[in-house]
């Protein structure tokens, strides 16, 4: 092997090791309805604790930005609609319709 090939192969990262895990046998029925429901609620509560909730200030700011965007686009679309309505109406009168 040449020196260039050796330098390139040294710079390449090693491939990750393959980890094989034993699969657990799925059971047909792992508990009653109440047990599964309680486990679901525990898991949900644990997951909700990990959520990164926005602060009140962040919620206020994004709400204001959203309202401004909605008003802007509503006015823009209203204006475009009025222009097209004007043009179509005058086109009809010019063509004798």
Plain-language structure description:
The protein is mainly α and 97 residues long. It has a domain at 69-97. It has three helices and no strands. The chain has helices at 3-11, 33-50, 56-94. The longest helix has 39 residues, at 56-94. The model has no long low-confidence stretch (mean pLDDT 85).
Task: Give a quick summary of the entry.
This protein has three helices and no strands.
Distinctive features:
about 100 residues, extended, single chain, mainly alpha
Class by helix and strand content?
mainly alpha
Q: Profile the largest sheet.
A: none
Oligomeric state of the chains present here: single chain
Which geometry do the CA atoms define? extended
What proportion strand? under 5%
Mean pLDDT comes to 85
Terminal-residue CA separation: 85 Å
- Order of helical and strand elements: HHH
> Total number of β-strand segments?
0
Report the uncertain regions. none
Could you give the topology of this structure?
Blueprint: H1 3-11, H2 33-50, H3 56-94
